């Protein structure tokens, strides 16, 4: 099976055609209700929702039947969040890439060739990579949803090959040796070392967005230049959060300075782009950036320093400083206060438990001393 650095699935093979045959340039949407015109309208909407590069990647790695179903599946109103649509598109693309690398079938005819045993093989691969239970279930849930949509909405006679009870570990278990639900939290001295390790405007900008703004990695890579409101100084950034809710964040002076230098006059398109391809950065590339910074900062186990670690550290640091839980919850974009509080409690439970154990030890020593009197 192919391997690739910092990507959960193998990269597409270099012999792919330059243009996907079933993703030709789109004409303007037409009026009428023929299936062909409906497909045109769906594709136009998805270009706006998930980006042309994600749509092109799906078209390259999927066969015509699977690609057609994916179009309508992603455009369904059951997936209202743009962040969810973009994440599902990337998940299906990477499953297709793994399937092609493992079977040699390209493009990947997932709907007609993916079986229970194939999904079992994928689960073993995911386990061997040490992915968390939550990550495995996210991929499998996306795949299962696609098959259910194909059978229900398109009347395609396929059986859903995904059985979550068999193929995915339950939430609350660990597949990589860490305690269930544990998220690494850095000390502020380590965060300062990470900041000092930034050498490019992009690295500085990524650090500011992940730590000082506390954004999710998916929120960072989804940012567009059109989201910037420059009528304010520093500029205000509009961010699409989970559930389709939008928030506005005022950038700090440092973030604004690095943003302007990084954009270098670009006025449209994604904020973060790959320097070689010019395409939007994805969350796996963002992980590569934080791991690289951790190596340069000489942090312990740099591969475990992910964008989520910076966000979790920021949330914990705010609660350590006594900031109100409700304010930190809103800042982090958590639906429930228990999620926000969980970051702090997991970090501080060891110190709390040690203090309680020390109290019992001292009380026991006092009792023993009284017996000797």
UniProtKB/TrEMBL annotation:
MF-aspect GO terms:
DNA binding
The UniProt keywords, alphabetically, are: DNA integration, DNA recombination, DNA-binding
Region (Disordered) residue ranges read: 1-34
- This one is known as Site-specific recombinase XerD
What are the residue boundaries of the Tyr recombinase domain, all occurrences included?
A: 181-356
Q: Which domain of life is it from?
A: Bacteria
Phylogenetic lineage: Bacteria, Bacillati, Actinomycetota, Actinomycetes, Pseudonocardiales
Is ATP-binding among the key words of this record? no
């Amino acid at each position: 099976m192919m391997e690739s650095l910092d990507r959960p699935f193998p990269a597409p093979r270099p012999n792919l055609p330059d243009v996907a045959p079933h993703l030709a340039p789109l004409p303007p949407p037409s009026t009428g209700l023929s299936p062909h015109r409906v497909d045109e309208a769906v594709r136009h909407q998805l270009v706006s929702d998930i980006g042309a590069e994600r749509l092109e990647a799906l078209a390259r790695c999927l066969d015509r039947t699977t690609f057609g179903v994916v179009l309508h599946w992603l455009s369904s109103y059951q997936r209202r969040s743009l962040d969810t649509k973009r994440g599902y598109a990337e998940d299906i693309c990477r499953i297709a890439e793994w399937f092609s690398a493992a079977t040699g079938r390209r493009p990947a005819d997932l709907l007609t060739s993916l079986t229970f045993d194939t999904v079992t093989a994928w689960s073993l691969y995911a386990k061997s990579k040490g992915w968390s239970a939550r990550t495995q279930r996210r991929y499998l849930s996306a795949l299962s949803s696609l098959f259910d949509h194909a059978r229900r909405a398109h009347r395609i006679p396929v059986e859903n090959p995904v059985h979550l009870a068999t193929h995915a570990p339950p939430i609350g278990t660990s597949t990589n040796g860490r305690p269930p639900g544990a998220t690494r939290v850095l000390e502020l001295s380590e965060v300062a070392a990470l900041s000092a390790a930034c050498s490019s405007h992009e690295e500085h900008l990524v650090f500011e967005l992940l730590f000082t703004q506390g954004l999710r990695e998916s929120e960072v890579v989804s940012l567009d230049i059109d989201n910037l409101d420059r009528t304010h100084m520093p500029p205000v950034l509009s961010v699409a959060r989970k559930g389709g809710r939008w928030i506005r964040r005022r950038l700090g002076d440092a973030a604004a300075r690095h943003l302007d230098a990084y954009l270098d006059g670009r006025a449209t398109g994604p904020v973060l782009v790959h320097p070689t391809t010019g395409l939007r950065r994805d969350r796996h590339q963002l992980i590569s950036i934080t791991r690289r910074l951790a190596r340069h900062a000489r942090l312990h186990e740099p591969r475990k320093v992910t964008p989520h670690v910076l966000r979790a550290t920021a949330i914990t640091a705010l609660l350590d400083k006594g900031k109100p839980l409700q304010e930190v919850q809103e800042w982090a974009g958590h639906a429930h206060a228990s999620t926000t509080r969980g970051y702090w409690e997991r970090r501080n439970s060891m110190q709390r438990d040690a203090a309680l154990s020390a109290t019992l030890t001292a009380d026991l020593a006092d009792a023993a001393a009284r017996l000797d009197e």
